[in-house]
Amino acid sequence: MDPPFQTQLSRRERQIMEAVYRIGEASVADVQEELPDTPDYHAVRVAMAKLEDKGYLNHRQEGRRYIYRPEIPREEAKRSALGHLVRTYFSGAPSEVLLTLLNMSSEDLSDEDIADLEAWIEQAKDEDAAND
């Protein structure tokens, strides 16, 4: 079964999740301040409650305020989102993602970036040979 963060999120829900990940723990007002085109408090509160229902957030109560935090660690969410992207748009081939990224940013790659990539490829080859 896919983790809950595989559920399709609206643009505003993604913005809210990005804000909560950035802040760590946040009230509705904290998140509202972080969002572009500042939505009203009620709209943010409703969206955060929906994100909690979907399994993205959880909360604790401090007085009258709810303090939200991500249910899923950011690294796990990134891996899952990237895995979904690879399966959906790149036929499950991570090499296609890397080639696309390299083609998009080849002018921006420094000699150090290229050396890091070469080292990573060599390490992957060594690990593959060790597993054979």
Strand adjacency order, main sheet: 1-2
- How many structurally independent domains? 2
Secondary-structure element string: HHHEEHHH
Specify the biggest β-sheet. 2 strands, antiparallel
Q: Could you tell me the strand content as a percent range?
A: 5-15%
Would you give the CATH topology of the largest domain?
Arc Repressor Mutant, subunit A
Which structural class matches the secondary elements?
mainly alpha
Sequence stretches where pLDDT stays below 50 over 5 or more residues: none
Query: Rg, please?
Result: 19 Å
Question: What is the assigned CATH homologous superfamily of the largest domain?
Answer: Winged helix-like DNA-binding domain superfamily/Winged helix DNA-binding domain
The share of residues in helices is: 55-70%
Number of helices: 6
> How many strands in all?
2
Distance between the termini: 30 Å
State the shape: elongated
Q: Give the CATH class of the largest domain.
A: Mainly Alpha
CATH architecture of the largest domain: Orthogonal Bundle
Q: What is the average of the pLDDT values? A: 88
